[in-house]
Amino acid sequence: MAEPTPKDVEAWLAEFQARLCTQFERFEPEQGFLHDEWQRAEGGGGVTAVLSDGVVFERAGVARSVIRGTRLPPSATQRNPQLAGRPWKAMGVSVVVHPRNPHAPTAHLNVRLFSTDDDEPIWWFGGGFDLTPIYGYTEDCVHWHQTAHELCAPFGEQVYADYKRACDEYFYLPHRGEARGIGGIFYDDQNAWGFARCFGFMQAVGQGFIDGLLPIIERRKDTEHGEREREFQLYRRGRYVEFNLVHDRGTLFGLQSGGRTESILMSMPPRVAWSYRREDPQDTPEGRLLGDFLPARDWLPDSD
After folding, report:
1. Of these residues, 35, 98, 103, 108, which one is catalytic?
2. Does 95 map to a domain?
């Protein structure tokens, strides 16, 4: 069997975007995705698919891009200063869903291939997924992490543990002293396995996101809720916005590389609110999110 190439990755990303849109549209009988095709002046382009004001998804975005540049931006060379000034190529799919029901969690995925675009190319894969519940459900957290563990298992005994820890460390708001959500897996600069195996892991992560998320959405999309839960949802979405604008390397890379602003910021929730010095009692569902669910922990069932 022939060794896969970046062209194979590009083809899979297009198929993956279409598959995700189809899966999400199953929940929306009267609402579909707007597919917005765009070109980038410096090179490349993409398709941003956005579903807005649905019955289940207040917003769902699935953005695919293949872009090129002549000089790597600072956000890409901070960890790899030896690559400064080299031409580059990046391709990937980014996904975010903001459900309407406060009991259904926000979810995010990104998978990408990055390479220098010259005579001696250096490439690496990156990505992962994470879950941001508004109201915590142990059943959902266990399912999410068990799915992540199972997709990682064929690639090595320590892969899940290492990438879970990286996710917990990355999706953290130091200025708040709290995690964005309950984590998942996160990886970057992945090239030690060889191109074919790294590409296989990208595909496994993509399918794992679908397998992990859709049963949770199905369970929570019709949960009864009122104004209190909606208010808390908008408040917690503020943390999501803070992370994306202050800490997220993907957002910084997109903006610093002259990316398409509308596509970069499609991850933002359509409605959000901030409260001054809000404190929820620990014995309330809102308080338990911060005390019982957001601190990093092992969500896998006991092996016994």
Report:
1. 108
2. yes
Provide the 3-class DSSP secondary structure of residue 214: helix
Residue 302 within a domain: no
The amino acid at 284: T
pLDDT(79) > 70 = no
Q: Which residue has the tokens 């009988």?
A: 29
Residue 303, in any domain of the structure: no
Average pLDDT over residues 26-35: 94
247 belongs to the catalytic site: no
Amino acid sitting at position 215: P
Q: What number of CA atoms fall less than 13 Å from residue 16's CA on the CB side?
A: 28
- Kindly tell me if the per-residue pLDDT of 267 is higher than 70: yes
Instruction: Tell how far CA 153 is from the center of its chain.
Output: 20
Q: Tell if the pTM clears 0.70, that is, is over it.
A: yes
pLDDT at res. 80: 65
Q: Would you state the structure tokens that stand for residue 109, as one six-digit string?
A: 């995925």
Query: What is the tally of structural domains in the chain?
Result: 1
CATH for 163: 3.40.1500.10
pLDDT digits (tens, 9 = 90+) for 147-176: 999 999 999 999 999 999 999 999 999 999
Asked whether residue 301 is assigned to any structural domain, the reply reads: no
pLDDT at 304: 39
Q: CA dist 46 to 65, 147, 175, Å?
A: 4, 29, 34
DSSP 104-161: SPEEEEEEEEEEE-SSS--EEEEEEEEEE-SS--HHHHHHHHHHHHHHHGGG-TTHHH
Domain extent for 70: 6-26+34-77+86-293
Output the CA torsion 254→184→50→248 (10° steps): -20
Calpha distance 49→21 (Å, rounded) = 8
Beta bridge partners of residue 91, listed in sequence order: 66, 113
